[in-house]
Design a protein that fits this description.
By secondary structure, this protein is α+β, with helices and mostly antiparallel strands. Helix content is 32%, strand content 25%. It binds iron/sulfur cluster (SF4) (2 copies). One iron/sulfur cluster binds next to helix 12. Pfam families: Fer4_22.
Length: 368
């Protein structure tokens, strides 16, 4: 087991920048932990924790200098791999009346993500299946995803709305990272246990000059890994997929719809949701037109518009669509759950609707 000092994060960020990466990590802004460019240790949210409850999120000041002492904020890495708004294709009209096309983002930056939680690694894997694992690959997503360097950070203190343990996606990363860190703070000890997941991760770790952990550090790290799963705020019923499949006419959908604002927050904060819409945006002279993709949501009425009109006209129908896709039909479509248990949809739902409670309610009430 190898450790580095917390201050080595400064070197890590600098080395990745020198290697040509645009380095992105957690920062504190407007009362939240958000992902943004980081240039050194000082940009990380040292000493900040976050409280999560249904419809509630607050930062608080810790009594230590933990660099990764928060859980997750409203952002996910999705905003870099599948941006909220992107130009896919630009079409130019030539003077002779013909057309030329160019890619919207010909060469995206190579990015390094710092502080990726295990559930977020799982979410990236889910979106890889969606965008790259189908008959038609999403070229724009593929170009951004290809060069990404992933520095994961295992969760030591899961939040009140977390349930990754019951989704088998955390709180310790098993794969999908270049380097994984575990922050260990106990008594006067403060170290980062480092593991390499790829050759590139090992090469970077060597440049940080790690040392072997002593016995106390080893025992403390093992305690973090053992105890974190027991600190989950919630759990998803293990039979969620079957419960939903047999509850499509359950009265609970209508009950939940009376609370749901159909605001789409849950889908926008979700690291796996991928609904999008396309629009053509011409310039005023009619010489250039852009095909722009923006995030959409199954909670928007127009999202289900087809020939003949919108077919999910009620909030109950939209909520059922979201939940049943996430936890049931996503398995049929992509071979995995569409939920990784990050808890964002619970924290950021303005009325505190809780996906785990909804499934438990459907399971407990039986079919109607
Ligand atoms: S459905 Fe909710 S808990 Fe599951 S991945 Fe999306 S935001 Fe996270
Ligand atoms: S479940 Fe909550 S976040 Fe999602 S659309 Fe309804 S009110 Fe908005």
């Amino acid at each position: 087991m190898r450790v580095i000092a917390p201050q080595a994060m400064d070197t890590l960020i600098r080395l990745l920048s020198e290697d040509g990466y645009e380095v992105v990590g957690p920062t504190r802004r407007e009362g939240a932990i958000v992902y943004d460019r980081v240039h050194g240790l000082d940009d990380l949210p040292a000493g900040w924790g976050d409280d999560h409850a249904p419809g509630r999120y607050r930062l608080w000041q810790r009594d230590d200098q933990a660099l990764f002492g928060y859980v997750v904020g409203p952002h996910s890495w999705k905003k870099y791999l599948f941006p909220p708004r992107e130009t896919l294709v630009r079409v130019h009209r030539r003077d002779d009346g013909g057309f030329e096309t160019e890619n919207g983002e010909p060469s995206p930056p190579r990015r390094a993500f710092i502080g990726v939680r295990p559930c977020e690694l799982a979410a990236i894997d889910v979106q890889d299946r969606v965008f790259l694992g189908q008959a038609v690959r999403d070229r724009a997503y593929g170009a951004r995803r290809e060069g990404v360097f992933l520095v994961a950070v295992n969760c030591a203190e899961p939040g009140g709305t977390c349930f990754c343990a019951s989704m088998d996606t955390g709180p310790r990363a098993k794969s999908g990272f270049d380097m994984a860190l575990t922050e260990v703070i106990e008594g006067g000890m403060h170290v980062l246990v480092a593991e390499a997941g790829t050759e590139a991760g090992e090469a970077l770790l060597q440049r940080l000059e790690p040392r072997e952990a002593d016995d106390a550090e080893r025992r403390a790290a093992e305690r973090v890994w053992r105890e974190a799963p027991q600190r989950m705020g919630r759990a998803m019923p293990t039979n969620a997929r079957d419960v939903i499949a047999r509850s499509l006419e359950h009265p609970r959908w209508e009950e939940t719809a009376r609370r749901c604002l159909s605001c789409a927050n849950c889908t926008l904060v979700c690291p796996t949701c991928f609904c999008a819409q396309m629009e053509e945006v011409p310039d005023l002279e009619g010489r250039v037109s852009e095909r722009v993709r923006t995030w959409d949501s199954c909670f928007n009425g127009e999202h289900s518009y087809m020939v003949g009109g919108t077919h999910r006209t009620t909030v109950a129908a939209r909520y059922r669509q979201w939940l049943s896709h996430k936890l049931s039909t996503w398995h049929d479509q992509f071979g995995t759950s569409g939920c990784v248990g990050c808890g964002r949809c619970i924290t950021w739902c303005p009325v505190g609707i809780d996906i785990t409670e909804e499934v438990a309610g459907l399971a407990g009430g039986g079919d109607s």
